[in-house]
Amino acid sequence: MIQIKYIGILLLLCLPLSTFAQKEERDYIRRGNRDFADSLFIDAEINYRKALDVNPQSTISMFNLANTLLQQNKLQEAMEMYSAGAKIEKDKLKLAHMYHNMGVIFHSQKEFAKAVEAYKESLRNNPKDDETRYNLALAQKQLNEQQQQNQDSDSNQQQQEQQ
């Protein structure tokens, strides 16, 4: 009985610490959101990183940080953040946004096959997203054109080798 009281007291003492950490995380996210809205991307990045220091599992912070990195053209870092968030996010709509943005990065780097897969994953999580559906169709078209060009250049090389 005495042990149960001590456990209860310990839980009550720990509760304010976790509440404080959640508030601190939310405050950093809010500051980051204000900075992002004001196009102060470096300041936004700092605040989102501070939020992640408080809660390393915060997918909101990961997503917002990735968006900020994307705005700064830090594509590799943004991709890593989206990937990390996608591994732990449970909400399908948020997952769809992460995969959509990953598709945008792949698309911008002309990695059309990877873009197609990212857009498909986004649509699996949110089938109603018309923008992603459009981006998927465009990436598929560009992938086909890229493959056709590769085939044409391969056949040209073979013809030159035969001559």
Write a brief structural summary:
87% of the residues lie in helices and 0% in strands. It has 163 residues and is mostly helical.
**CATH domain class of the largest domain:** Mainly Alpha
Shape: elongated
Percent in helix: over 70%
Indicate the mean pLDDT. 87
CATH superfamily of the largest domain: Tetratricopeptide repeat domain
Helix/strand/pairing category: mainly alpha
Range of strand content:
under 5%
Compute the separation of the termini in Å.
93 Å
Low-confidence stretches at least 5 residues in length (pLDDT < 50)?
Answer: 1-6, 8-15
Write the layout of secondary structure elements.
Elements: H1 2-37, H2 41-54, H3 59-71, H4 75-88, H5 92-108, H6 112-125, H7 130-162
Helix pairs in contact: 1-2, 1-3, 2-3, 3-4, 4-5, 5-6, 6-7
Outline the structure in words:
The chain is mainly α. It has seven helices and no strands. The chain is elongated and about 75 Å long.
Labels describing this entry:
disordered N terminus, mainly alpha, Serine Threonine Protein Phosphatase 5, Tetratricopeptide repeat, elongated, 163 residues, 2 domains
